[in-house]
C-alpha cells in the first residue's frame, strides 16, 4: 500500500513529519514516498505541482498532504502560486467530496472561544463540494464594467455554476454519510438569491427521496453561520457548495478549540482520497516548532479508515490523540492554564508513545 506524502511549505513539513512518525509506528507494510508541492515544488522544480509529484499522487493508494501557501510566493502569477497545487490535485484526482468532521474532545471544552455548554459533546460533519461553484466557473477575470454607476471602470468577475450531476453525486455522498450517523442532513444554500443554489436545493430535495430514513432540511448560509456559533450541536451532517463550505468549515474548526485540531478527507467516487489538515501553511508560525500536528495526525487516521480499509489502525491513532490530550499535553493554540505546553515534535512523539 503506497501513500504519497506531500509536505508542502510553511508548517507543512513540520506537521507532516509527525504524521509520518505515527504511520511508521503502526508496524504496517506501508510504502511512504515523499514529493515536493506548493512553495517547495516551485522552489525545486519551478511549479507548485511538479509533474513527478502529480504522477506519484495518481499512482498512490492515498495522499497525505500538509499545507501550502508560503507568503514568499504571493507575488507570483496565479498559476504558479502554491495554492494551485491543492486545486490541481483535487481536479486531476477527481476529488469532489470534502469531509470535515468537527469534534470537540472533552479535554478541550475550555479551549474553545465558545461557552463549554454550547460546544461540549460537539460532533458534526461538514461535507463540502469541491469541484464546482464560483472557484472554477468560467468566464472569470478582469474587464471594463459594462453598465451601472461604475461603467467603464475596471471590474473583477467570477462565475458561480453547478452542473446537475455534480450536485447529485455530492448529495448521494451526503445522504449516505448521514445514514451512518444520526440520519439528519442540513443542506446549506442561498436559494433565496442565487439561481445556482435554488437548483442545488431542488436537486437535494429530489435525491432525498431515495433516502427516506434521512431527515433533510434546508438552511440559508447566513443563518447556518449564525446557528453554527449559536447552537452547533443541533447539526448532524451539513452539506454545501465549495465556497460556503470553505467558510463554514473554518468557522466550525474554531468550535473544536483550534483549526489545528480539524482533519479532512477529499474523496473521489471510489474512496481514493487526499487527506490534509483543514488549515493552511500558517506562515506566521512556520519554523518555530509550535504548530499543532494533531489535525494532520487525525487526517492520517482518516486516510487509513477511508482509503486503506484499516479502521482498526485508525481507531488506534484516534485513541492515542485522546490519550495525549488526557495527559494534559497542549500545543500553543490549545494551551490553557494547568496544562503542559509542548512543541510540534514533542506532541508527535507523545502520540507515537501513546500508540504503544
Ligand atoms: P492558516 O490556516 O494557514 O492560518 C490561520 C491561523 O491559524 C494562523 O494564525 C495560524 O498560525 C493558525 N494555525 C493554522 N494551523 C495551525 C496549526 N496547525 N497549529 C497552530 N496554529 C495554526 O490560514 P491563512 O493564514 O489564511 O493562510 C495562510 C496560507 O495558507 C495562505 O497562503 C493560504 O492561501 C494557504 N492555505 C492553504 C490551504 C491548504 O494548503 N489546503 C488551506 C487554507 C489556506
Ligand atoms: Mg479554507
TrEMBL record:
The keyword NAD applies. Residues 2-351 form the Isopropylmalate dehydrogenase-like domain. Mg(2+) binds at residues 222, 246, 250. Keywords: Amino-acid biosynthesis, Branched-chain amino acid biosynthesis, Cytoplasm, Leucine biosynthesis, Magnesium, Manganese, Metal-binding, NAD, Oxidoreductase. Pathway: Amino-acid biosynthesis; L-leucine biosynthesis; L-leucine from 3-methyl-2-oxobutanoate: step 3/4. It comes from the Bacteria. The keyword Protein biosynthesis does not apply. Binds 1 Mg(2+) or Mn(2+) ion per subunit. Its EC number is 1.1.1.85. InterPro entries: IsoCit/isopropylmalate_DH_CS, IsoPropMal-DH-like_dom, Isopropylmalate_DH. Substrate binds at residues 90, 100, 128, 222. It holds the Pfam family Iso_dh. Its cofactor is Mn(2+); Mg(2+). One of its GO terms (molecular function) is 3-isopropylmalate dehydrogenase activity. It is found in: Cytoplasm. NAD(+) binds at residues 280-292. The record marks 135, 190 as: Important for catalysis. It catalyses: (2R,3S)-3-isopropylmalate + NAD(+) = 4-methyl-2-oxopentanoate + CO2 + NADH. Belongs to the isocitrate and isopropylmalate dehydrogenases family. LeuB type 1 subfamily. Catalyzes the oxidation of 3-carboxy-2-hydroxy-4-methylpentanoate (3-isopropylmalate) to 3-carboxy-4-methyl-2-oxopentanoate. The product decarboxylates to 4-methyl-2 oxopentanoate. Homodimer. This is 3-isopropylmalate dehydrogenase. It comes from Janthinobacterium fluminis.
